[in-house]
Amino acid sequence: MSSTVNVVAVTQDDPFFTGRFFASFLATAVNGPVRLVEIVLLRNFNESRLALARRLWKVYGTVDMARLMTRYAAAKVADRTRRPRSVAALAARAGVPLRTLDSINNETYLRTLRERGVDVLLSVSAPEIFRATALNAAPHTINIHNGKLPFYRGMMPTFWALLHDEPEVTITVHTMAEKLDAGEVLAEYRVPITARDSQYDISARAKDVAGREVAGLLARLGTPEWPTSHPVDMSQKRYFKFPTPADVARLRANGKRML
């Protein structure tokens, strides 16, 4: 492998969290060996915008949904005033090519990765399971999960950590396997949870930390400082689905906030 680490990131675009990862990642990677060759955008939660809005409304409720939409509008304004927050706007400012795909398992696309010398296929909140062809499309296929594995596998691990009164969220960087969140762990980064944190606050801060730390980690690829991965004990596994309104009610009953 050359001294340059070529990365293709697979993600979904939202103005709240994934943009924070890329802002932090790009700021850390600048002038270093890590080169973000391309960002692949998949559809948020792999569903239509209307379906996504309904999903969020069921979880957040009317009041918090209105507040969330206010933040969404502010982010859109920021994108137009050279203070980008969305992945697309951040990519445009940094000159990183952006590609929209219906599926990362598109074999025609995946064949281009080795042709372009891509070293790492990086999943950043990608809303789709990577099949075998995708998992083997680059020398390294890596996922970033904002939960301790194997205890917080699945959806919105920051929510479940907050509900369960955890003192911190663990960002887990792991190799990808055909079973969801079941690869070998490369690194873990801890993000403390304070008494004043909402679920939104924790998710946002975790993305900031993840972007910075993952850029630094990938800069060590191909060097003696690259960590040796280790398996997780899947006998301890738990899997969490997307929170229901009842789950959110439990969180609020404990005096905690979504926003």
In short:
The chain has 259 residues and is α/β, with parallel strands linked by helices. It is 39% helix and 20% strand.
Describe this entry's structure for a reader:
The protein has 259 residues and is of the alpha/beta class. The chain has a single domain (5-253), classed as Rossmann fold (3-Layer(aba) Sandwich), CATH 3.40.50. Helix content is 39%, strand content 20%. It has eight helices and nine strands. The protein has helices at residues 18-29, 49-80, 87-94, 107-115, 132-135, 157-163, 199-218, 245-253, and strands spanning 5-12, 34-42, 98-100, 120-124, 140-145, 153-154, 168-175, 185-192, 239-240. A seven-stranded mixed beta sheet has the order 3-2-1-4-5-7-8. Strands 6-9 form a two-stranded parallel sheet. Helix 1 packs parallel to helix 3 (87-94) and helix 1 runs parallel beside helix 7 (199-218). It starts with a strand and ends in a 6-residue tail after the last helix.
What keyword list fits this structure?
259 residues; Rossmann fold; two-stranded parallel ribbon; 8 helices
